[in-house]
Amino acid sequence: MLGYVDALNAVDEAMRAAIPSLERLADVLGLVRSHRIINRSGQVGTYSYTVHGAGCRFAPDGSEIFDLWRLRRYGLSLPEPLDVTDQDLRTAVRSLQPLLTEVRPGWFSVAS
User: Fold this and answer.
1) Residue environment code for 69-87, b if the CB has 16+ CB neighbours within 10 A, otherwise e
2) How far apart are CA 64 and CA 43, in angstroms?
3) What percent of the chain is predicted at pLDDT more than 70?
């Protein structure tokens, strides 16, 4: 789980390095929709990305939020894949409070 948070921070850092005018990761959606600066899919540093409807969600303050599905997909993508149940993921997320916060049922954010 903390690996996912680290990966999220690394992507945020790479995007800000590639697009110096980017104030927060949530602004990527607006840039893609306006067809300015960034394409719907591409490469930023060592990361490839695709921006689509439900793949990237943000809280009202612009912070990134994620659900259990994304955590499961991350676990399955590891060199030694981890396949865990929703209940195991919920327990893990709750054990990381206050580092992670449930911003709405089933959606989590890294506390600022």
Assistant:
1) ebbbebbeeeeeeeeeeee
2) 20
3) 88
Nearest to 79 by CA among 23, 2, 11, 3: 3
The stretches of 23-66 forming alpha helices (DSSP H) are 27-33
Q: Up-side HSE of residue 19: CA atoms within 13 Å toward CB?
A: 19
> pTM to 2 decimals?
0.63
CA distances from 48 to 21, 55, 76 (A): 20, 14, 18
| Helices 86-95 and 68-77: angle between axes, nearest 10 degrees | 100
DSSP-H helix ranges across 1-112: 2-18, 27-33, 68-77, 86-95
Alpha-carbon gap, residue 53 to 101, rounded angstroms: 23
pLDDT > 60? residue 54: no
pLDDT greater at residue 73 or residue 24:
73
Among the listed residues 106, 112, 110, the one whose alpha carbon sits nearest the alpha carbon of residue 89? 106
